[in-house]
């Protein structure tokens, strides 16, 4: 397997853009990534396009890459459409990495794009509701809330975790305060205003104990990444190489001995990269709801189970500039969660961090970074998890 480096990244601002379509979002992200890499579209060998919900929201099925990228100069290139719920573009990244590492191609482009906003909000919520096994019974402890199936599922997990660890809603609110502060420093973030613990707790209940500010929002956006064999990167005058050290994809088990997919995927990634949680400097993780950030502290092994996550949060170690800066982009809660673009956006942020280009949200001297991206729901767990480890 060859060494693979990230040579270019780009992303649009994330937000609610009723006037924009997948073409517009994709074209902007691709243009930025190619310019960052210093190459032209004709130098791309293969394209991997991650999108989850276009079929539901806009009706565009089957040829999402070909239709979205038709005006980018990439027409005629091999294009692979990748759908894996909220892990669509991180899965696309995984496949592109394999193609370059194996020698199947030298330069690959990854695009994650999503158009979720719709004049009828039930269409947007309906897209999320498709990311479960429709024939599976809802888990024990599930309570219907206000129409968001996934927030009801996240709320059930939060209640269970609170009973096991003693965590309180105020701790979830502290996650949001940290997230909003990071988002205020990120020009690409959907939410740019800071908040307080009191304001988070006072926002309306979506699904107990989750308040509105504790939930990721509907949004639109796109992100793109250029991957290149190290030997080719040497000829492209890359300013600072960011190496892909590991990429793992795991699907949920439905019976027998089971561990959360995020635990399994991260363990495999650590083994492949030859690093451990103690080596990480910056993390982008899947905080689709505020409790998820704390739960993933445990899943990724950066704290002890059974209450260590709250202690880690309160210590400030996961703040911007902390020992392990977590979600310096603002994460899904503040940067936004256009589901098919989320995984790619995590990797774009980590590339900026490792290059030292993250501005006011920079984790000083970041050398090793990890992205954790979940997708869907199956048998009480995420249906898929993708973990990527990068380093300089």
TrEMBL record:
InterPro entries in alphabetical order = Thiolase (IPR002155), Thiolase-like (IPR016039), Thiolase_C_2 (IPR055140), Thiolase_CS (IPR020613), Thiolase_N (IPR020616)
Q: What top-level branch of life does the organism fall under?
A: Bacteria
Against Pfam families, the record matches this protein to: Thiolase_C_1, Thiolase_N
The keyword Transferase is annotated on this UniProt entry: yes
Which parts of the sequence belong to the Thiolase N-terminal domain? 4-231
What EC designation does it have?
2.3.1.176
- Give the keywords, sorted: Lipid transport, Lipid-binding, Transferase, Transport
Q: Which GO terms describe its biological process?
A: lipid transport
| Protein name listed in UniProt | propanoyl-CoA C-acyltransferase
Q: What organism is listed for this UniProt entry?
A: Pandoraea terrigena
């Amino acid at each position: 397997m060859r060494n693979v480096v990230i040579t270019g990244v780009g992303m649009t601002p994330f937000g609610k853009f009723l006037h924009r379509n997948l073409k517009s979002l994709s074209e902007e992200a691709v243009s930025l990534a190619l310019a960052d890499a210093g190459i032209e579209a004709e130098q791309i060998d293969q394209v991997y396009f991650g999108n989850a919900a276009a079929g539901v929201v806009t009706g565009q099925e089957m040829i999402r890459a070909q239709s979205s990228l038709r005006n980018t100069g990439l027409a005629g290139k091999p294009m692979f459409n990748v759908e894996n719920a909220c892990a669509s573009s991180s899965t696309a990244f995984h496949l592109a990495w394999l193609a370059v590492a194996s020698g199947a191609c030298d330069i690959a482009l990854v695009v994650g794009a999503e158009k979720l906003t719709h004049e009828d909000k039930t269409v947007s919520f309906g897209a999320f509701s498709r990311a479960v096994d429709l024939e599976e019974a809802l888990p024990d402890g599930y309570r219907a809330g206000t129409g968001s199936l996934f927030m009801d599922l996240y709320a059930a997990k939060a209640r269970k975790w609170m009973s096991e660890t003693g965590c309180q809603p105020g701790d979830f609110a502290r996650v949001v305060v940290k997230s909003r502060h990071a988002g205020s420093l990120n020009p690409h973030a959907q939410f740019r205003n800071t908040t307080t613990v009191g304001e988070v707790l006072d926002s309306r209940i979506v699904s107990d104990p989750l308040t509105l500010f504790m939930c990721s929002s509907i949004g639109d956006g796109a992100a793109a990444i250029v991957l290149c064999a190290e030997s080719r990167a040497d000829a492209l005058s890359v300013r600072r190489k960011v190496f892909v050290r590991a990429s793992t994809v795991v699907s949920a088990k439905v019976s027998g001995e089971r561990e959360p997919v995020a635990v399994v995927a991260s363990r495999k990634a650590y083994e492949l990269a030859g690093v451990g949680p103690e080596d990480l400097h910056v993390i982008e993780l899947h905080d689709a709801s505020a409790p998820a950030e704390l739960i993933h502290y445990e899943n990724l092994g950066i704290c002890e189970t059974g209450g260590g996550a709250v202690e880690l949060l309160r210590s400030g170690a996961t703040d911007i500039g902390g020992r392990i800066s977590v979600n310096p982009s603002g994460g899904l809660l503040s940067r936004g969660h256009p589901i098919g673009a989320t995984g790619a956006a995590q990797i774009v942020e980590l590339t900026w961090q490792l290059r030292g280009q993250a501005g006011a949200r920079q984790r000083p001297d970041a050398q090793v970074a990890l992205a954790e991206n979940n997708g869907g729901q199956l048998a009480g767990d995420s249906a898929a998890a993708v973990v990527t480890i990068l380093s300089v």
